[in-house]
UniProtKB/TrEMBL annotation:
Gene3D superfamilies: Homeodomain-like, Jelly Rolls. SMART domains: HTH_ARAC. This is AraC family transcriptional regulator. Residues 181-279 form the HTH araC/xylS-type domain.
Amino acid sequence: MYEISIEGKLRYASIKIEQVTNELPGILFLPHWHHQMEFYRMLEGEMMLTIIDETVHVKSGDIVVVNPNEVHSAERITASVSFVLYQIDLFSLTDNLADIQQKFLNHMFHQRRYFLKRDPVLSTRALPFLMTVEAGWRAGNVEAVESATRLMLVELLRQVKTKYPDQGAYKTYKHTLSQLKPTVSLMTFRYQERITLDILAEMTKVSAIHYSRLFKGVMHYTPIDFLNQVRIAKARQLLLTTELSVGEIAFQTGLRDSNYFSRFFKHYNQMTPTAFRKKYRIS
């Protein structure tokens, strides 16, 4: 039901790999962004991956890239999905410029602002490299993992790249993300607190109307619906991994009243919390 790490641990590698399998109803993951680059290699099932304003239909065998600082989210199409996620920290990977590959990557990503296109060619070109990266990960070989990752990115940038078309628009987009980041963090990690639109707008130092427009423009949710989805995701996790009562889970997710929580949960999951726990929990 949940994320399963691929065998092998690399404490200091600039790439992390995990296999994700999900059979639960609802959104696969909510809109978010980070400075790492990600590759999704689909193993089974189908999902819709939304990246900024582009929605990509991802099916078994596909490989899709998410460049750094691109807001992305996903919904399942099939009842179950399974994919391998490769997360690459480009800053870590390019911090030592003694190597010609690292110089090239630093120039492309950090100076010229090139990024990888979501193109069918990418799947064909990336697969053998990702398999090599994964083999190094399983063997616990940091140098092999990072060397294969650099080689992959160099080759892909030579063949499947494009430049940010409008540097002004890109700077505006990144500025908006920086504006929203404190409120997204509040809703993601302190969802049990009382959070209102006015509180979120005040944190961003704009009006509530302007904040709502900014938020929905990049996250594709209203702020309150995003908060509701965060609370529902946490409620599902607690139902499946703890012995807490429905009332206790209601309190821990910031919804307080168990009757309201049950109605709220059913609205998003088409079943009560108790029915959800009975159907999906693995004893």
